[in-house]
Amino acid sequence: MKPINCFIAFNNPVQAEKTAQNLLQSELVNAVYLLCTPGNNATIAGCECIEIDSLLTSSTLQKIANKSTTQFSLIYTKDTTLELGQYALERFFHIAENLDTGLVYSDYYQIVNDERTTLPLIDYQAGSLRDDFNFGSVLFYNADNLKKAVSETSENYKYAGLYNLRLKVSQQAELVHINEYLYSEIEFDTRKSGEKLFDYVDPKNRAVQIEMEAACTDHLKKIGAYLPPKFKSIAFNEGNFPVEASVIIPIRNRVKTVEDAIKSVLSQKTSFNFNLIIVDNFSSDGTSEIIEKYAKADNRVIHIIPNRSDLGIGGCWNVGVESINCGKFSVQLDSDDVYEKDNTLQTIVNAFYEQNCAMVIGSYTMTNFKMETIAPGLIDHKEWSPENGRNNALRINGLGAPRAFYTPVLREIKVPNTSYGEDYALGLNISREYQIGRIYDSVYLCRRWDENSDAELDVVKMNGHNHYKDKIRTIELKARMNQKLLK
Asked: What average pLDDT does range 381-404 have in this prediction?
């Protein structure tokens, strides 16, 4: 028997027939199955139709497993024509066979408006737990691993079937990335990177997120990385602080937004004393002069210029937190953004005491530069729950804003000296021991504009960011596994 059975998403008969015939010409392909939704069946020479409800469901994967009678199963998840590169199937086959892998995937060419560009992917690692990890549209599974994963799935997933499949396969074997462009696929989602970042928190995707969380939690339990909801208690009596809270703004060249940020802090109404620590990372566009103007007029404004020039956002945070002016609670405000209400700071500090937590995460509203609400609007991260938030945090790509910390804990852990993902790394680390408090009402306005750091990133930059966050998750995952082994 030839070693590969192929399963292709069917929608357009013309597109599907081209893909099917290309596959059937290969000496490695045993059979091609069309994954057809009800009422969309088709007859293509040499192919068999499998009626499915959706490509994402557990029932569909069970049907694929039943037909996975060869050594390997290729699943093509797009319904446009698949253009395989020269000897691409042979490459998938030989690497999968030689390395005894669970899944092989490769870089590919992306076709947008008839223009072909390269789409490099990143290596899968233990911490690549986010459900939007990009494997491309060609998934080359070891059939035995696929069938075992399906047989071990008791949940009937409506949305998380494919996500659960690769998690369970990763428990058995390695998922291998081929750094070669082995095929071409057509892409219709042409939104900027900054417009895609919040898809997972769109309210209409809530049911999807619940299932993804269930699949991830099950995976963490299987590999020994799940943490039950048991947390260290905090007395909030460590150290002597000049004020109850400090808002910390790391900044560099934000002359257009810094004054709005400062005003939103100074207008806060609280029952306690607070200050504003601005760590000015050698601004050269007039930002420093604006900060200094406010520092001279109001002694609550502390203007700090670091004594070293190798600091990212995280390093600037460390400078602010270690300052003798820092309060008991360190509260974040990005230089692009503003607090939505004059009681934001009070609300955040109250949450520390009410929820006995070492970190508080608020909710925010997306706006344009003029602070007019834009889609998706409120970002409240309701997927975070006291019972399972710190486990689910290993799946999602961000924890929300604004973020605030009990300063003694933050001084002990330190902030990674990076300008991306430093807050996420902190949240994972802190949540290993402590409860993270949540505020689900919007208290913060997050402005999106062309000079935002993630407004429009190229694929190389996005890959770098994603790889770094996956590495953060890998480190945290292994720390949790080791911690449980030592207990």
From this structure: 91
